[in-house]
Structures are given as structure tokens and as C-alpha cells.
């Protein structure tokens, strides 16, 4: 092969590059006719496809080696309080976190710990490679879990000056797609909230108020499995996002819909799950579709500890039910069980075509003290 490939780039001999000069100058000594040039272009295209395939295979192998399910722990910086202890009860290593409470030390091993000093950029660097994987056709999930107030929303959404994973991931997808000349991509976005076992479309034209009593009529989207095995939420708004600006506008709209529609805000939204789905279409000889799920899970506080009753108790039970169903699914996948119990909650049903051996899943457990102890 006379064209050498280095680092994914096709190296073209200099005298041929001159053909691409925009001023149309005729290159002296160039004696090829048009058909020879066309052949050359098609050979280069095929070489590019070959390199693209190899890049995908290498990334798949890397994900395989690292494990498609990865668990991270992020420690929220301590909020200043009067009874601030001078010594932190948490010790953090690269892959281990130890918590000391009433004299008992508990240790957890994870793929990586992000300590109090970690920035949104540090966290994003870790998830960047699987965004490439999503563009390559894999369904991918990134989720944040932990108790209320520990930093799940901060990690996923971020704040104005400190963008979280979701806005950064959207930006990265557009940037990767614009660099990839081998195939055109198009993206669309959907956002939904799962509350007390009901699904609510956050990008619907008319936003129903999310009063629990009205849920059965206004938030009853159902989940369908298509013939190809893909899972779809029936009637869920899926808006095309041609550019980053439009994507951010829709994302902000979904976030607003989540926070303003609660009749009793009082942190009720922390007892729902918020799911953002980016659908990626790769247009080529055949169209490939993949999904990137970005999920801010409901707070995982224990009912006993919160002393909940009435509706709060029901909300807590619903959250606990879906979180434990999700935990069961992930445990079954980790143990490579033949049966994976996707059907036990709405949350796991929606994600059933995106949680599996070949689908990368990154979990960010958020953690703060003394609240979590
Ligand atoms: N890593 C962090 N750095 C700075 N502030 C944080 C961090 N994590 C959380 N916070 C702040 O702590 C508060 C609670 O975080 P939040 O993300 O709303 O928790 P959750 O979604 O788990 O209930 C927010 O004011 C948030 O901005
Ligand atoms: Mg939150």
C-alpha cells in the first residue's frame, strides 16, 4: 500500500495534495486523467473506512479491558457548618474510599474516586471515551446515584459556570461528529421524568402539572419493544437538534419543565429520576442508531432514616423499588447471569436495550459527609 496510515490519518504524497489547491492551478507534470483520480479517491475512501473500523475495534477492546460497567465515586466538598469537625472522616485513594463513622471504618473499592477537589472537567475526562463509543453505534448509559444533596445534579447538570456531564457530552458529540468526515451524523433529544412509576415527557408542548393525583392521566406514557429489539417510550417527544445552540435550548427547556412543574417543590423533584436521551443516527450505506442516556437518579435515602410518612413514604418506596430493580439488573449483568430482571421497574424497562454486556455503563456514586453516614 503506497499510502501510509499513521495515527488514524491517511498520508497522501505531496504531489497529489496539490490537486486540492483551491485556486485551480494546474500542477505541472501531473499526467493522470479524471478516471485515475476517481479510482484514487475511492481507494482513499475505502482506506478511511478500514481505519475507522480498526479504530472502533480498538475502542471496543479498550472498553472490554476496562470493563463495560465502571463505578466511580465523587465526594462533595464539605458545606461549611458550625459543627465542622477539623478532621475529615473520609480518606480517599485513587480507587478506594474509606469512611469512618462512630469508630467503624468502612471501605469501598471503585474504578476511580473523585475527591472533594475534583473538577467538572476531571469527571468529564473520564466519560469522554464512551461518547466516541456512542457515536460508533453502542447504546451507552451514564448515571448518577446517591442520597439527596450529595451532588448528583451537580455532576450531571452542573451549574452555570461549572457545566456538568450532560451539557459537556452534548458539546463533545457535536465536536466529534464535525471532525468525522467518514459519515454524517444527526442527533435528537428526549427528556423524561420517572415519578411514582409514571413517565412524564419533559419536552412535550403542553406541560401537565406533575401532581401525583393527576399522574395516571397526564403522565401515562407506555414502553414498547420494537421488532428489532429496540425499546421505545410511546409518544415521547424526540426533537431533532441540528446544532449545539438548539441542543442547549431544548436541554434547558427540559430542565425548566422538571423544576417548575411541581406543585410542592420542597425538593419533591429529588424523589424522581430525570433521564436525558440523545439519539445518534449515523448515516452511511445503512443507518445506524444508538442512544446515549444521561440519568440523574432520585435520592436513595433510607425511609426509616428520613422518618417519612404519607406521600413522601410512597415516593420513597417507589424510588427504592426502582433503584433496587436497577441494582438487580446491574448485579445480574456483572455476574453474567442468563436472566436479567429488566421487567421489575419502569426505569429498567426503558433502559433494557441500553444496559447489557456490549453497552458501556458508567455509574457515578455521589457522596458527602456527614449526611451519608
Ligand atoms: N462537587 C461539588 N462542588 C461544588 N458544589 C457542589 C458539588 N457537589 C454538589 N455541590 C452543591 O451541593 C448542593 C447539593 O448538590 P445537588 O447536586 O443538588 O445534590 P443532589 O442532586 O444529589 O440532591 C448544590 O448546591 C450543589 O451546587
Ligand atoms: Mg438533584
UniProtKB/TrEMBL annotation:
Biological-process GO terms, alphabetical: microtubule-based movement
Sequence ranges assigned to domain Kinesin motor in this UniProt record: 68-373
Binding site for ATP: 146-153
Cellular-component GO terms for this entry: microtubule
UniProt KW Nucleotide-binding keyword: yes
Pfam family, one: Kinesin
Keywords carried by this UniProt record: ATP-binding, Coiled coil, Microtubule, Motor protein, Nucleotide-binding
A single MF term (Gene Ontology): microtubule binding
Family in the record: Belongs to the TRAFAC class myosin-kinesin ATPase superfamily. Kinesin family. KIN-14 subfamily.
Name of the protein in question: Kinesin motor domain-containing protein
Amino acid at each position: 500500500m503506497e499510502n501510509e496510515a499513521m495515527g488514524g490519518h491517511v498520508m497522501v504524497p505531496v504531489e497529489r495534495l496539490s490537486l486540492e489547491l483551491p485556486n485551480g492551478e494546474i500542477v505541472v507534470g501531473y499526467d493522470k486523467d479524471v478516471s485515475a483520480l476517481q479510482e484514487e479517491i475511492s481507494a482513499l475512501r475505502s482506506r478511511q473506512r478500514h481505519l475507522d473500523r480498526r479504530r472502533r475495534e480498538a475502542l471496543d477492546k479498550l472498553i472490554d479491558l476496562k470493563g463495560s460497567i465502571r463505578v466511580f465515586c465523587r465526594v462533595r466538598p464539605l458545606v461549611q457548618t458550625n459543627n465542622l469537625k477539623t478532621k475529615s472522616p473520609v480518606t480517599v485513594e485513587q480507587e478506594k474510599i474509606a469512611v469512618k463513622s462512630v469508630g467503624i471504618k468502612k471501605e469501598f473499592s471503585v474504578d476511580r474516586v473523585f475527591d472533594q477537589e475534583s473538577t467538572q472537567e476531571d469527571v468529564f475526562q473520564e466519560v469522554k471515551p464512551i461518547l466516541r463509543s456512542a457515536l460508533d453505534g453502542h447504546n451507552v448509559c451514564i448515571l448518577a446515584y446517591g442520597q439527596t444533596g450529595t451532588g448528583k445534579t451537580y455532576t450531571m447538570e452542573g451549574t452555570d459556570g461549572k457545566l456538568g456531564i450532560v451539557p459537556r457530552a452534548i458539546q463533545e458529540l457535536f465536536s466529534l461528529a464535525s471532525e468525522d468526515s467518514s459519515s454524517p451524523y444527526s442527533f435528537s433529544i428526549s427528556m423524561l421524568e420517572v415519578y411514582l412509576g409514571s413517565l412524564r415527557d419533559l419536552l412535550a408542548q403542553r406541560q401537565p402539572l406533575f401532581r401525583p393525583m393527576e399522574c395516571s392521566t397526564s403522565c401515562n406514557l407506555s414502553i414498547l419493544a420494537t421488532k428489532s429489539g429496540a425499546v421505545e417510550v410511546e409518544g415521547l417527544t424526540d426533537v431533532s437538534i441540528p446544532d449545539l445552540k438548539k441542543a442547549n435550548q431544548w436541554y434547558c427547556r427540559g430542565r425548566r419543565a422538571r423544576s417548575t412543574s411541581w406543585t410542592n417543590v420542597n425538593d419533591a423533584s429529588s424523589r424522581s429520576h430525570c433521564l436525558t436521551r440523545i439519539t445518534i443516527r449515523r448515516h452511511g450505506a445503512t443507518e445506524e442508531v444508538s442512544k446515549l442516556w444521561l440519568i440523574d437518579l432520585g435520592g436513595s435515602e433510607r425511609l426509616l432514616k428520613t422518618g417519612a410518612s404519607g406521600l413522601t413514604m410512597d415516593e420513597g418506596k417507589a424510588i427504592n423499588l426502582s433503584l433496587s430493580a436497577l441494582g438487580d439488573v446491574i448485579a445480574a449483568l456483572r455476574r453474567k447471569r442468563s436472566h436479567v430482571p429488566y421487567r421489575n421497574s419502569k426505569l429498567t424497562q426503558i433502559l433494557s436495550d441500553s444496559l447489557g454486556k456490549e453497552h458501556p455503563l458508567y455509574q457515578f456514586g455521589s457522596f458527602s459527609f456527614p449526611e451519608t453516614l
